[in-house]
Amino acid sequence: GCQPEESPLSRAIITSVSGMEFAAQNAEPQTITVYADADWTVEAPDWVTVDVTSGSRTMDVTVSVGDNMRDGAIDNPKKDTIVFRGYNLLAHAYVIVSQAGDKFRDVPAVKASDILSMKDEDVVILDDVQVVAASTKGFVVADGTADVFVVSDEAVAVGDKVGVWGSKGTAEGLAVVAVCDKVEVTGNAAVTYPATTDITASINTYAPSKMEFVELTG
Fold it and tell me: Assuming Cys at both sites, which of 13, 140, 164, 197 could form a disulfide with 36, CB separation 3.0 to 4.6 Å?
């Protein structure tokens, strides 16, 4: 009887790297090695150039990108995936490609309370907040809408009016600015603290959903 034709595509593909990073401008091409037991094809995002569209068994592949520019200025960072396709999904290999850029381009400033609903790695600009507390690991800023911890080793003082540029993250279940790229001090003023919440009786069960100003006695 008739037998179904065997696919020539590889049953197993491995690449020499799982990720590649390129500069925003004048990025040098990079070479990766594809290891396979048969034929394979390549699928890449439109801003990434791969010197082959298909291959067979073990081959070196060169990957390159153009300058990451828009309207004469560096554009936002880029990130996508090159897929080396084999016989089925189990045979595919994936390489994450990233290109540097200006992650703050076109990003509007937000209120501290907006950070509470952002996704991790979302870009954050706070342009009018005040430092209300500081520690060895960072500082707390507030703008009347919420208090947010900023992970940073910048030297700031309580009362400083600052601008903060970074990325949202999560720490101890709370929204924070986990990556702080820049802090700009614009002034200093006395801090007006809100009324405290006494958590002495609920210390064993206290589990806030956001940063709060509290007191306890013990």
Answer: 13
pTM of the model: 0.77
* Residue 111 to residue 39: CA distance in whole angstroms: 53
Q: Residue 186's CB: how many other CB atoms inside 10 A?
A: 10
Q: Can you tell me the distance from the alpha carbon of 151 to that of 191, in angstroms, rounded to the nearest whole number?
A: 20
Q: How far is CA 200 from CA 93, 145, 210, in A?
A: 54, 25, 18
CA 163-164-168 angle, 5° bins: 150
Torsion, CA 149, CA 151, CA 153, CA 159, rounded to 10:
-10
Residue pair 36/63 in contact (Cβ under 8 Å)? The answer is no
The per-residue pLDDT for 8 is 83
Q: Give me the phi and psi of 87, to 5 degrees please.
A: -65, -40
